[in-house]
Amino acid sequence: MLSYRHSFHAGNFADVLKHTVLMYVLNYMNRKDKPYCYIDTHAGAGMYRLDSPEANKTGEFMTGIGLLHDIPLQGLLADYTALIRVFNNNSNQLNNYPGSPAIAQHYLRDHDRAQLTELHSSDFKLLSDYIGRQRAIGVLQKDGLEHLIATLPPREKRALVLIDPSYEIKTDYAQVAKTLAAAVQRFSTGTYMIWYPVIKRADTESFISALVKTGIPDMLRLELCVKPDDLERGMTGSGMILVNPPYSLKQEMEGLMPELHQRLVKDAEHRAAPWQVTQLSAEK
Ligand SMILES: C[S@@+](CC[C@H](N)C(=O)[O-])C[C@H]1O[C@@H](n2cnc3c(N)ncnc32)[C@H](O)[C@@H]1O
Question: What is the DSSP secondary structure assignment for residue 237, as one 8-state letter?
Answer without folding.
Answer: E
